[in-house]
Design brief:
Structural class: alpha/beta
Strand order of the largest sheet: 3-2-7-1-8
Shape: globular
Helix content: 40-55%
Strand content: 15-25%
Distance between the termini: 33 Å
Number of helices: 11
Radius of gyration: 17 Å
Number of strands: 8
Largest sheet: 5 strands, parallel
Length: about 240
């Protein structure tokens, strides 16, 4: 059992590549999707899952407009819309890191607090696994209750630079998740949608506030993935 090939789709913040990503997915028909995370994408997913009236294209397109106004990345939302259209395409959130979310002084270190567990990321279809809201705000999937305070902190406090400086460790985690997904499931194609900075060193090098060790530890995500058939598509250049 294995998935035959991987295509990684690179996106960018503040660029309306929503329909380009959607057309790419419709053309390639992936058996599964793995998604980069951002705080808004996770909240959007939870709202959709817990309020059936929001499980619609109209809601996602409205979210797209709001995110673009704030300079965010809308590529993952296009992936969610494709999953809504198809109804049976499993979706994995494949971002996070092994280890602590907070520094020793209690500051955010840039890794998202949602899916920092390889087994959970590999085994959980975020679109169809049962989810509930505790006290109308804390999302709970089977075996995992998410930390609302951290989720909120990332939504209102974390800058893009803070999250991007953690890309070296996030890439390590995502590669582990993607390798495991490809080994665990069957199908012709897995598509990963994520910020193109995760794949291109020259873009990562432009991140504000990088330390020498950040640069030394950066490895393009595709280089960390062991799939024999793998490719990268930058939708901002198509």
């Amino acid at each position: 059992m294995a998935i035959d090939a991987l295509v990684a789709v690179g996106t960018e913040r503040g660029v309306d590549i929503f329909d380009r990503v959607l057309r790419f997915l419709e053309k390639t028909s992936p058996a599964r999707m793995a998604l980069d995370e951002n705080p808004i994408a996770f909240s959007t997913l939870v709202h959709m899952r817990t309020a059936p009236e929001l499980h619609t294209e109209a809601f996602l397109r409205d979210q797209k407009k709001q995110i673009l106004v704030r300079g965010g990345d809308v590529g993952v939302l296009a992936g969610l819309l494709y999953a809504v259209h198809r109804g049976n395409v499993p979706v994995h959130f494949a971002d996070g890191a092994l280890g602590d979310i907070l520094s020793s002084t209690g500051e955010l270190i840039g890794t998202y607090p949602y899916v920092g567990d390889v087994d959970f990321a590999v085994n959980t279809d975020m679109m169809r696994t049962p989810v509930e809201l505790i006290k109308q705000r804390v999302p709970r999937y089977p075996g995992r209750e998410f930390d609302y305070e951290l989720i909120h902190a990332y939504q209102v406090e974390a800058s893009n630079a803070v999250m991007d400086r953690a890309i070296p460790m996030r890439n390590q985690f995502t590669a582990m998740v993607i390798d495991a997904i490809m080994e665990t499931y069957s199908g012709s194609l897995l598509v990963f949608i994520g910020l193109r900075k995760r794949f291109r060193k020259e873009l990562f090098e432009a991140t504000e506030g990088l330390r020498r060790e950040d640069l030394e530890n950066f490895v393009p995500l595709l280089d960390l993935i062991h799939a024999k058939k793998k490719s990268f598509v930058d939708v901002t250049e198509s």
